[in-house]
Amino acid sequence: MTDQDQRPSDIVELVKASKAGDKTAFGRLVRLHQRQAMRLATGVLGDAHDAAEVVQEAFVRAYLRLDRLRLPGRFGSWLLRVVAHEAIDRRRALRRRADGLKPSRWHEMKRPGQGPEEAAQDRDLRAAVKEAMSRLTDKEAKAITLFGLDGLSQREVAQMMGCSTEAVRWHVYRARQKLRVLLKEYLE
Amino acid sequence: MNDGNHDIDKLLQANVEGQLERFDWDRLGDDVSKRLAAVGLRPRSRPKYLGPLAVAAGLVLAAGVLVVVIGRLQESEPVPSSSPGRATVSIQETADGAGSATVMPAADRVVRCEVMLLDSDRPPADRQAQASWCIVARPASSQVESARRGQTNILCLF
After folding, report:
1. Residues B93 and B150 reside in one and the same domain
2. pLDDT tens, B62-117?
3. Is the Cβ pair A186, B16 closer than 8 Å?
4. Smallest CA–CA separation between B56 and chain A, in Å?
């Protein structure tokens, strides 16, 4: 059985054990949810390197605040809320820094079998997406990223954002409108 | 979803997945474990009795505030019985000047006693006139008993 096949009852047990101070159990929860957490943080920030720091911080915070999680079975959505919160905080911090919008060295790494030209295109695209995402409001960035995550309904996204489903749809609509203009050359 | 939306969503997804394609997942888990070890703490636990205890403490505090407020309100009302009383002396003409005095030491207390008139500003010729002041004393028979209680036997009444 892979990590992704974990049953909800197993999650509940792992959360209970983690609450009791079992860090191995929490490590298992990390492995189960790290991909979804990284997708969210990378989506909001547009940069996997920044996202990794955010996700680490989010997991540590989540561990220390496990007593606030009343329904252990909802650990996944609760964790994503913590990650989204941390990612938005990081966005604000990056905006204040002069080099905050520059792509990290992560972008310079080539994928296996990738030629220099293709790698350069990738780098440009990532820099452009990161810049474009930074132009969105916090709510727009959060909404369009959560909306694009697999397995999350509009209602769940609304609950995570603390607003109505109509408001989520509006933020997603506005985000798409802006991104269509900002990333025009990459869409053609 | 129209094509424009689809293209945007696809581009964002490709950007994320492309970056995570080479991501070292094991390292992320290790880094989190190291940070947790560095923190060296268990998850903060909130004792189960803390909720009811907080409610009880709140109730006690509210009751205390209520008592103080009521106390303050009562203090601000006029005090009824601390004002000085008055005395009325009616002289019954006798050979030794004895009479009776009705003394109200406070608005809600009335004391009646037998007194001897020692002096007053009433003109001696006008027995119907009222005195504005007088000095009276307890009769000799009462003085012994009263003296034991440390009471004053001579009063100046105005």
Report:
1. yes
2. 888 777 777 777 666 554 544 555 666 665 555 555 566 666 666 666 667 777 77
3. no
4. 22
